[in-house]
Amino acid sequence: MVTEASGLRSVVLLSESFPDEKERIRSLLSQHIDDAVNEEWPEMSRQRATLTRLPVKLIEAMQTTLALKPVDEGQKTAQREMIGALENAFEARRQRILISQSSVSKIKWAGLLLQALCTLVAIAMVHVDHRGACAIGLALFATGVAMSILLIGCYSRPFTGEISIGPELLQQAITSDAEPGVND
Questions:
Q1: DSSP code string of 78-141
Q2: Which residues fall within 8 angstroms of residue 74, CB to CB, at 6 or more apart?
Q3: N or C: which end of the chain has fewer CB within 10 A?
Q4: Nearest-angstrom CA–CA distance, 23 and 2
């Protein structure tokens, strides 16, 4: 998501080179971000977002950028960089949606738990003669396994739950409080 937000922010900043189209490009990006926040994010949290839904406003922003007619080298460079940043945003959006569809399968959970059980049995067998060392070894390993299970469970669906990824960074890409010249 950092790549997507960064790409969109770059386009916003580079659009300053095209005063006639600057507001249109910003408006399209703002609408794209609103669509992502209000439509894609809820779908991603339910693992229902798909790539079949096209980012219409992002496509329009790309078409607008491609249609720009640069008059000097600075504008040519800005247009080229805007196209690259929009391509990065498209790819980052695709990755965001694909990640939202992923989860840890039951087979992987079973494998993790079986491996943990086998390791606990091995620790117990190695330290069978030393109850204190056995208890400490088992407790340490069990704590590590519990922490691993907790972390994997929390991050297996990154757009759902208490520690989920939110759209805040994406929303910041278009904010006007960090525009050039404001804080100078």
A1: HHHHHHHHHHHHHHHHHHHHHHHH----HHHHHHHHHHHHHHHHHHHHHTTT-HHHHHHHHHHH
A2: 17
A3: C
A4: 23
* Letter string b/e over residues 102-135, b meaning 16 or more CB atoms within 10 A of that residue's CB: eeeeeeeeeeeeeebeeeeeebeeebeeeeeebe
Distances (CA, A) of 42 to 34, 59, 143, 167, 170: 12, 21, 34, 10, 15
CB atoms within 10 A of CB 160: 16
Q: Tokens 């339910």 map to which residue?
A: 46
155 secondary structure, DSSP code: H
Query: Within 13 A of 166's CA, how many CA atoms are on the CB side?
Result: 6
The model's pTM? 0.74
Question: How many whole angstroms separate alpha carbon 61 and alpha carbon 68?
Answer: 11
pLDDT in tens, 119-161: 999 999 998 899 999 999 999 999 999 999 988 887 777 787 7
Which residues, in sequence order, are CB contacts of 173 under 8 Å at separation 6+?
A: 4, 5, 6, 8, 9, 12, 29, 33
> At residue 150, what is the residue type?
L
User: What integer pLDDT is reported at residue 183 of this predicted model?
Assistant: 45
Q: Which amino acid is present at 126?
A: V
Contact (CB, 8 A) for 103 and 157? yes
Question: What is the dihedral angle through the alpha carbons of 101, 107, 110, 111, rounded to the nearest 10 degrees?
Answer: -110
